[in-house]
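wait is this the right file?? whatever heres the structure
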């Protein structure tokens, strides 16, 4: 059994306690099920009015129809976007400070590398009694990561959570995770099954991309572990970021979350561009 860092095992406690029958059978409504937990009820009491006011200022109905989360590692910023109808573009609701971050630019490729993942993910678990107050797990390793990461120990249990301390996750303060968790809860309760979370090394403008290339040439970043990809089918770090930039630019241009698939040999994201 491989050794895991305890700072990002927020979901393990959830699973163990559930297995010990702490959780009753799921309620008919996801929101009602979550409201059985004290921390979620406290978040509603403290933050619902705040969020309604915030969304009203942005002219987006609350609860929103859909949300989208985007994070930038070097800027240490997590953005919350939302929209009130499926035919509307997303609006930036609020940017939150990521208050602690391990690793540096570059994807997560194996357990214990201290890296925060980079790529295109979705929330796959809500943890209402995390050891980090409240937490939202992202689905690392995703389809691309499973091709490009260490096949034996890619790592996992990556969360957006509170408590402002972490290795490999995206921590906020307890106060701010209440807002993000509650908005995500409302979106899921309203029918959004897949809440996207896109994580980038930084804002991938062309200027910033050129800067990353210069830093790569100067040897600032370690060699990306291409050999860890099955069959040696990895790509250079800059090529990986150029691929992420495609998805970044599509959202910047359309303010809609891009659709994509994953090329099964290389792990490259293949984006579906909207019709002109």
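ok assuming it is, sequence goes like this
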């Amino acid at each position: 059994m491989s050794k895991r860092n305890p700072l990002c095992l927020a979901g393990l406690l959830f699973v163990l306690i559930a297995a010990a029958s702490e959780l009753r059978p799921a309620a008919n409504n996801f929101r009602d099920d979550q409201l059985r937990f004290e921390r979620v009820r406290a978040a509603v009491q403290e933050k619902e009015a705040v969020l309604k006011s915030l969304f009203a200022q942005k002219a987006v109905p609350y609860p929103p129809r859909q949300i989208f989360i985007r994070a930038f590692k070097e800027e240490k910023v997590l953005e919350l976007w939302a929209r009130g109808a499926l035919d509307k573009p997303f609006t930036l609701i609020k940017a939150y400070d990521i208050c602690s971050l391990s690793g540096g630019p570059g994807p997560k490729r194996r357990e214990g590398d201290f890296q925060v993942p980079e790529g295109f993910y979705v929330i796959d678990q809500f943890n209402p009694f995390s050891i980090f107050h409240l937490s939202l797990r992202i689905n690392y390793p995703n389809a691309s990561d499973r091709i490009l990461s260490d096949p034996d120990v890619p790592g996992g249990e990556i969360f957006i959570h509170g408590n402002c301390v972490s290795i490999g996750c995206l921590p906020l303060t307890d106060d701010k995770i209440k807002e993000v968790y509650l908005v995500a809860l409302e979106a899921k309760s309203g029918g959004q099954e897949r809440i996207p979370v896109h994580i980038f090394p930084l804002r991938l403008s062309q200027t910033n991309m050129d800067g990353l290339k210069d830093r790569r040439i100067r040897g600032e970043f370690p060699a990306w572990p291409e050999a860890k990809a099955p069959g040696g089918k990895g790509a250079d770090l800059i090529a990986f970021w150029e691929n992420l930039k495609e998805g970044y630019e599509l959202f910047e241009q359309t303010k809609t979350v891009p659709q994509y698939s994953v090329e099964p040999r290389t792990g490259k994201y293949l984006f579906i561009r909207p019709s002109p």
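DSSP finds seven helices and ten strands in the chain. so i think its the right one actually
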